[in-house]
Write a structure and sequence with these properties.
alpha+beta; Immunoglobulin-like; 2 domains; six-stranded mixed beta sheet; three-stranded antiparallel beta sheet; 25% strand; rod-shaped; adaptive immunity; coreceptor activity
Length: 208
């Protein structure tokens, strides 16, 4: 089967117009030189029975038709596409999914790779931006904010903060002052008793 040239021309013009007006962000892939990539093109409904794969090469600033593929497995390569390196396939289902497998990618093949459905030329996926031989950017690790634990005097140690020592010291001083007050009051009470009472109190204690 040969795809009519009118469809190829319509496809090329539509793809070129889409490239100049689309502001969508494509998925970026970083394969190795001579590496392989598998691209996916999913139809929004069941009406996509034929698909065109194309690419826009960044170095040569050129748009190339790669492959025509339909749900029956019929395909046709473009003039600039190597038949051994570009292979299409499709999955069956309510919404067809088309695949393009590319092998032997080179640095000068960096650019945008995407697809277009024959009966839905106004529905064009964002595609993939392939950069062979380029190292992916290194993502910085997320910054984790660690909250400092609150100081607790229940677990005070000899090397604990000064504020914690003060919290333990003041109750101890208060207890000592209370005992000193009680002792002073007792001594004062006995000092006020008559000598006779004190003599009897001492004698009673000796008898015990």
């Amino acid at each position: 089967m040969t795809v009519p040239r009118v469809w190829i021309c319509l496809f090329v013009w539509t793809a070129a117009a889409t490239l100049t007006t689309s502001g969508a962000t494509s998925t970026i892939l970083y394969p190795k030189v001579n590496g392989t990539e598998s691209l996916t093109c999913e139809c929004p409904d069941h009406a996509c029975q034929e698909v065109f794969w194309y690419r826009y090469l960044e170095k040569s600033n050129s748009l190339q038709f790669l492959l025509y593929f339909n749900s029956a497995g019929t395909f046709e390569h473009g003039n600039m596409a190597d038949k051994h390196r570009f292979k299409g396939s499709a999955s069956s289902g309510q919404r067809p999914i088309y695949f393009l497998r590319i092998t032997g990618l080179q640095k000068d093949e960096a650019g945008l790779y995407s697809c277009m459905f024959k009966m839905k030329i106004n529905t064009i996926p964002d595609g993939y931006y392939i950069r062979p031989g380029v190292n992916p950017p290194t993502l910085q690790p997320p910054t984790v904010k660690i909250e400092k634990p609150k100081q607790s005097c229940r677990s005070c140690k000899p090397f604990s903060p000064k504020g914690c020592k003060r919290s333990v010291l003041w109750p101890g001083i208060g207890a000592l002052l209370l005992l000193a007050g009680i002792l002073a009051g007792t001594l004062y009470y006995f000092s006020r008793l008559p000598k006779k009472c004190r003599h009897q109190f001492a004698k009673t204690n000796q008898l015990r």
